[in-house]
Amino acid sequence: MNKIRLSFICVLLLFFSEVIGQTVAPSKYYIQFTDKNNSPYSISNPEAFLTARALARRTAHGIAIQENDLPVNPQYIQEVAAQGVTVLEASRWLNGVVIYATNTNLVNSVETLPFVNKTKTVIFTSGQEKEKPFFKNETYSKVNPNIPMKASSFTEADYGYALTQIKQISGIHLHDAGYLGQNMVIAVLDGGFSNVPNQTVFDSIHARNGILGTKDFVYPDGDVYTESGHGREVLSCMAADEPGLMIGTAPDASYWLLRSEDVKSENLIEEYNWVCAAEFADSVGADIINSSLGYIGFDDSSVSHTYADMNGRTAISTIGAEIAASKGILVVNSAGNSGADSSFPWIDAPADGDSVFTIGAVDANGNRVYFSSIGPTYDGRIKPTVMALGLGATVADANNGILFGNGTSFSSPIIAGMCACLWQAHPNVSNIQIINALKETASNHTNPDNYMGWGIANFAKADSLLSADSATGVNEIGSQDAQISLFPNPFHLNLHIEVRGAKGRLYLSIYNLSGQKIFEKVYPSGMTSIIIGAGDLSFMSQGIYLMKLTSDNHVYFKKLVKN
C-alpha cells in the first residue's frame, strides 16, 4: 500500500513538473515590435489602409499621416504565427500584436524573433469565468407608468421618458434646428448589443441602414448581438427613435457597434481590445467614439492600475484614447462609478486622458450622484469634464420597453450623441473646440472642480458660442502691437477691459447673436483701462454676445458671456 501511494505521488509530481515547466501558460500575450521597417505600406499612400472618410477627417483638421498610422508589418505577423501561436489582433498605433499560445515554449520562440522587443501577459485562462458588471453601482429599475412626463409642448412629448436627459443639457435646441446627427458617425465601444436587431426603438435606424457595421474584438468573427445588453442600453441613449416612448440625442447619426469588453472577466487584454477597436473606428472614419468603459482593477491584481497610473499617459487604453483624439476623433468616456469608494474614488482609464471628454453623472435636479467618479488626475488636472443625467436615465430594455438606468455609462452617450448634433451644426471646428465650447458654457464654468468638472453641459449655449466664433472669423485685425484683455469673462456685474497699443479714441460696441447692436460707447484717446459698471449692462440677459472695439489702428472682436 505504501509503495502504491509513493508511486502515485511520484506520478503526480512528474505531471505537475511538466505542467509547470512547459505546458501551462497564460493564454494571451501582447507582443511589442521594435519597428515598422520594410513595410509594404507607406505614408505617401494612405489610401491603402485608411478609408476616404478617415482621410477626409485628417484633411479637414490639418492632421498629417504619421508612422503610427501605418499598419503593423504583415511579414512580422506571419513570422510570429509561424511559431505555432494564433495572432488575434494587430495594433498599428502600439505596433504590436495580441496572440494566443498553448504553452510557454511557443511564447519563448516568439521572443527570439529579431523584431520582437518584449512580451506582456494580458490574460490567464483559469477555466473559471465569472460574470462581472461593467461598472460597480450600476443598477436599473422598471418604469412606473404613473410618473407623468413633464412636457410643455407636443414636440417635447415626443421624447417620452427620455425628455429629462436631453432637456437638462439644452439639447432640444439643436434638434429643433434640424441637427439630429445626420452624416455623423459614432463608434460605440462596449461589451455586447443584445436584441438591437429586434428592439422597436431601433426600427428607424435599421430602416435607414444607420448601423454601418459591427466588429467583435473579444471573439474574432463573433456576434456582437450576444453576451450583454449593456451596449444596447448605451446605444439607445443616442439612437433610439420611438416618439412618445424614447428619442435619443442623435437619432439620425450612423453607428459602428464594436465589442471590446469581455463581460465575463476583467483582464488587461480588454485595454488592448479597446485600442484595436478605436483604431478600427479611426480607419472607417468615425467622428466620435463613445466608451462607457473604464479600467482600474483586474482579476489578476498584479496588473491592476494604481492612482499614480491615472496620469494621462500610462494605461494602455488611455494611450490609445489620446492617439484617437490626435487623429481628430472626439473621444467621449464615462468617468466611472467609484465616487463613493473611499479607497479609489477617482476616474478610471481612459477617462484620465487629457484630450478625453470625461462625463460624470448628475440626477434630474442637477446634483452630482454619489457614485460618479471624481478627479483630479494624478498629475493634477480637473476631471470629470462635464456632467449629464446618470441617475434614472432612460434606456432600452430587451423587450420593446425601457428601464431607468443608473451609472455614468449612460451620461456618456447622452453627451456623445448631442456632440454629434453640435458638430454637425459646426463642421469646421475640431474635436478639441467642441470640448472647449462645452466647458466654457457649462453650469460650473466659472469655478470648475473635481466633483462636477465644468458642470452640466449646455448645448444651446455652446452652439451660440461656436456661432459667435464663426461670425468673427478672426480674433484681431490691424496692428499686431495692439493688445486687449477683458475680465471676468463670463461676467455678471462689472466688466473690466484693458487696452495696450491702441491709437486714438476707442469705440466700443456690443451685439447680440442676431447681429443687433445693444450697447455702444466712445472713450477718449489714450485710455487704457475701461470699467463698465453693472448699471450700464444690467439690461443684458444671460447669454453669449459679441464685443467689438475699434481704434485708429485696431479692430478687435471678442466673445462675451454674461451669467
Compact overview of the structure:
By secondary structure, the chain is of the alpha/beta class.
Task: Detail the topology: elements first, then pairings.
Blueprint: H1 2-23, E1 28-33, H2 52-60, H3 74-81, E2 86-91, E3 96-100, H4 104-111, E4 116-123, E5 139-142, H5 154-157, H6 163-167, H7 172-176, E6 185-190, H8 203-207, E7 211-216, H9 230-239, E8 241-242, E9 246-247, E10 254-259, H10 269-283, E11 288-291, H11 316-326, E12 330-334, E13 357-362, E14 386-389, E15 391-396, E16 402-406, H12 408-425, H13 431-441, H14 459-472, E17 476-478, E18 483-487, E19 495-500, E20 506-511, E21 517-523, E22 529-532, H15 534-537, E23 543-551, E24 554-562
Parallel strand pairs: 6-10, 6-11, 7-10, 11-12, 12-13, 13-14
Antiparallel strand pairs: 1-3, 1-4, 2-3, 5-16, 8-9, 15-16, 17-24, 18-19, 19-22, 20-21, 20-23, 23-24
The overall pLDDT, averaged over residues, is: 87
The CATH homologous superfamily of the largest domain is termed Peptidase S8/S53 domain
- Any idea how many domains? 3
> How much beta, percentage-wise?
15-25%
* The CATH top-level class label of the largest domain: Alpha Beta
Low-confidence stretches: 1-22, 126-134, 144-151, 472-482
Multimeric organization: single chain
